[in-house]
């Protein structure tokens, strides 16, 4: 199950006892506080706390730039200016704290983003739950033949059934042995910190993850991208929905300039200038490598 009965009771209690505050409040975020957003088969994301809103970003920017922002007519315009010109510090004035339940192999990808504060469930002190991520058949795919980091065609028929059976039985067997090793039923039992080494990478863990908005946007730009691994992308997609309600102006600018935009090299810009003049441009004349040229063509063709 995504949440335990104890967690459900805690969530209900927290949402039933609102408190008065003088701090900045985002009405869009308030509706998400503590609520569970299911992800994958047993995972979830939920907002535990947050700080700041769109106005906090502008407040910080105007302190920093002073008269330099007088030409900006409104907060949304200022935020778009900041995003467009890569002024990151004002976005760091907003923070979010998430409670995330996720498979261990997804957590190992996620933790590569080292700009957050993390506190994870400890298998040294506690016993891991018997919950494993088992993919839906439609996301079971073969290795891509063109991308070493990606997936190819979806497995079909007997091949898909064979792989699913391996995933289920191997996870169950590993957990059975884990339980037996730490058992106290008439035996000494192995220390939990050692027994955990036998657990599979698809077992679920949990953590609290606190990050500022600038670094969250960096995380989302990479992990909500269509090329990201499916199992981490679905978490990023849920977080995107929350952020869009929390800081709508900032999220709109992020979508336009980071998710929907493209970074072009000097050579690529020169090629575009030549194309606008009606000149023919080829990979050979562009000065780009074959890989750069393919990526450039992908940007132009959408």
TrEMBL record:
Positions with a binding annotation for dUMP: 109-112, 120-124, 196, 223
UniProt xrefs under Gene3D superfamilies: 3.30.1360.170
GO MF assignments: flavin adenine dinucleotide binding; NADPH binding; thymidylate synthase (FAD) activity; thymidylate synthase activity
Cofactor: record remark: Binds 4 FAD per tetramer. Each FAD binding site is formed by three monomers.
Superkingdom as given in the UniProt entry: Bacteria
Pfam families xrefs: Thy1 (PF02511)
Gene Ontology BP, a term: methylation
Broad class of enzyme this protein falls into: transferase
Catalyzed reactions per annotation: dUMP + (6R)-5,10-methylene-5,6,7,8-tetrahydrofolate + NADPH + H(+) = dTMP + (6S)-5,6,7,8-tetrahydrofolate + NADP(+)
Pathway given in the UniProt record: Pyrimidine metabolism; dTTP biosynthesis
Assigned protein family: Belongs to the thymidylate synthase ThyX family.
Family matches, as NCBIfam families: thyX
HAMAP family (alphabetical): ThyX
Function: Catalyzes the reductive methylation of 2'-deoxyuridine-5'-monophosphate (dUMP) to 2'-deoxythymidine-5'-monophosphate (dTMP) while utilizing 5,10-methylenetetrahydrofolate (mTHF) as the methyl donor, and NADPH and FADH(2) as the reductant.
Protein name: Flavin-dependent thymidylate synthase
Biological source species: Marivivens niveibacter
Top-level taxonomy: Bacteria, Pseudomonadati, Pseudomonadota, Alphaproteobacteria, Rhodobacterales
Protein encoded by which gene: thyX
């Amino acid at each position: 199950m995504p949440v335990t009965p104890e967690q459900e009771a805690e969530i209900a209690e927290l949402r039933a006892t609102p408190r008065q505050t003088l701090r900045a409040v985002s009405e869009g975020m308030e509706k998400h506080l503590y609520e569970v957003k299911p992800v994958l088969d047993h995972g979830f994301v939920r907002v535990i706390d947050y700080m700041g809103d769109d106005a906090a970003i502008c407040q910080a920017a105007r302190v920093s730039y002073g008269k330099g922002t007088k030409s900006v007519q409104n907060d949304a315009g200022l935020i778009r200016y900041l995003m467009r010109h890569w002024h990151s510090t004002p976005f760091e004035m907003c923070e979010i704290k998430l409670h995330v339940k996720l498979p261990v192999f997804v957590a190992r990808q996620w933790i590569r983003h080292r700009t957050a504060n993390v506190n994870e469930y400890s298998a040294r002190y506690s016993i891991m739950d018997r919950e494993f991520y088992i993919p839906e058949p439609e996301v079971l795919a073969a290795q891509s033949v063109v991308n070493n980091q990606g997936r190819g065609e979806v497995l079909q028929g007997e091949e898909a059934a064979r792989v699913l059976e391996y995933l289920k039985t191997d996870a169950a067997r590993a957990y059975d042995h884990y339980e037996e090793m730490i058992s106290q039923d008439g035996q000494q039992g192995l220390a939990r910190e050692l027994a955990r080494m036998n657990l599979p990478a698809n077992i679920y863990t949990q953590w609290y993850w606190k990050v500022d908005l600038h670094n969250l946007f960096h995380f989302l730009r990479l992990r909500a991208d269509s090329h990201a691994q499916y199992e981490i992308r679905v978490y990023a997609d849920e977080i995107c929905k929350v952020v869009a309600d929390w800081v709508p102006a900032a999220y709109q600018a992020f979508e336009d300039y980071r998710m929907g935009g493209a970074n072009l090299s000097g050579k690529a810009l020169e090629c575009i200038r030549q194309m606008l003049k009606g000149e023919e441009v080829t990979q050979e004349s562009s000065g780009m490598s074959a890989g750069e040229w393919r990526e450039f063509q992908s940007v132009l063709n959408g």
